[in-house]
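Hi R.,

As promised, here are both runs. First protein below:
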Amino acid sequence: MKGMIHMNDLVIMKNQQAVTSSLQVAETFEKEHRNVLATIGGLLKNKHTQHMFAKETYINEQNGQSYPIYYMNRDGFTLLAMGFTGTKALKFKLQYIEAFNSMEEQVKLPTSPREIARLALQANEETNQRLDSVEGDVKDLKENQVIPNPEYSALNRRVNQRVSEVAHSYGHITQKQRGELFKDIGSGIKKIANVSARSMLRKKDYQMVMDFINDWEPSTATKTIIRQTSLRFDKEPA
């Protein structure tokens, strides 16, 4: 049975717009990602839908390979999810609607101190709410913004480089062993940043994550798995 889906995992901010990804949709609705990509491809044949989807790539943490992914806004998700039926699908659609509403409401928050002060005084003139507390809320919102795409891409490139550096120290290494290294470093990144997926990394955590990648070494468990795999490989008859 699929576990509870948290709203914060469904919708993210990207290019100043609330969006979700084809990968997240596939996971939430328990569908094959390639089938979701195929459905989006069909939708994109209509020129009126092309502004609703943006194609990018992501790094699979299991094998380190690049794969296509689509990001979509609320309209794109609505079109895509029209074909998802059933009680469970309806529940997830409602969760997505709530997540989009929540994220879009955050975007509407005032950004300038003067605007914040004006709205705060209008809302409650009698208590004369302190400006610095409101600014603190805005600062917290900004600090929790999802990492921008250039920085996200830089982190992924450094992950690939660091895994290659560590893999080189082992000499001959199989694709499966390399996959264990990607799994190890990916798990570490998510753990220190307290996120469920690398695409959810926060802007404020960029330098901390980059420092972790630069210093990363595989865990003892991962080293043991690689060593055991190498022993089995060496024992196989030529």
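And here is the second one, sequence first, then its structure tokens:
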Amino acid sequence: MNGEAMAAEAAAEPVEASLTERYLGSVQTWECDTMGHMNVQFYCAKAWEAEQGLFADLGLGRRARGARGLTLRMTDQHIRFHKELRAGTPFRVASGIAAIAPDGLRIYHELQPVVGGGVATTLTNEIRLADRNDPNRSLALPDEVLRGAEAFRTAVPAHGRARGLDLGDARPAPRLDDPLVAKMVPMQRGAVMPHECDEAGLLRPQGVMGRFSDGIPALLGNMLGWDRSSDPDSGGAALEYRIVVRRPAMAGDVLCCFSGIVSISGKPYTWAHWMFDAESGEAVATAINVGVHMDLRSRRATPLPEPMRGAFEAHIVDGLSV
């Protein structure tokens, strides 16, 4: 399981997905952000819930993992946002296994509105098995899990593959004292809380994405002096994300995040976000995402306002990547 395999998959021929419903529910008001749609962290949360059922079917549910001293870790994630999910929308998560390897599974998810059909979001997560007492230590999947995974095989359809991001191998993990960090803008700092962690005490994928998402208003405040709450007609939306989780974070860890602009191309712009353990200086996660400015009245992407474009151009950091 590596970036080259993900990149090859992204270039594959069009296919149909074979998926099984793993989550069914609706968007709650408290899951929506100031843009009026479900916040990106909850897409990750629903996919994580779907994965729990899948692993239970494979014989690696919570009880089985606990009895064997095992845990699960997400190490790489690719997301594409196709349409908004607003408060009250009923939706399902349908899932399948896109790649099987001794060191992990690549799981493909679609968030699908129950009414009207279509696809709201696609997520592809690389999941590894780890030692619960040493979650940095990856373990081989049991043979029975590898055999059972074949029953849930799927191909990733064209709409689930990368569009504006490179899914090749990630850069070496940076550290907090990396010279590029000094050129980036602080966007989030805080401690991991117990309720953000899974049964093994590791920060869930929702908590990683949530920090990047929650940090955007502070990032724009630091870059532009703009308080997003004072402008109810303007906002932003993510189109595509890739997150590489470098090591587990646990309750009590203090995390700090920094961002810089990678590029601007027409309406879309590309951010990179780096998350560190503030105490050790180690990278916890690196991410890259394509976003657009959004008119909240028309619910459409619009060109960056000139003052914002100028500020973004001033914060392009050469060499920044995931």
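A quick note on the second one: The first strand starts at residue 20 and ends at 26. Let me know what you think.

Best,
J.
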